[in-house]
């Protein structure tokens, strides 16, 4: 029998999905920042 001591497989899957969602949000925020910086640069050059 294979026992998980600290967290269950279901909890592990939930944490992985949460991590993936947080990474996607962070990536989207970085992309918005890049686009804004580019737009500002176009306005001031």
From TrEMBL:
Taxonomic superkingdom: Bacteria
Protein name (Swiss-Prot/TrEMBL): Uncharacterized protein
């Amino acid at each position: 029998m294979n026992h998980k001591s600290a967290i269950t497989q279901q909890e592990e899957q939930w944490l992985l999905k949460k991590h993936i969602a947080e990474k996607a949000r962070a990536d989207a925020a970085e992309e918005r920042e890049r686009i804004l910086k580019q737009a500002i640069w176009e306005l001031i050059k």
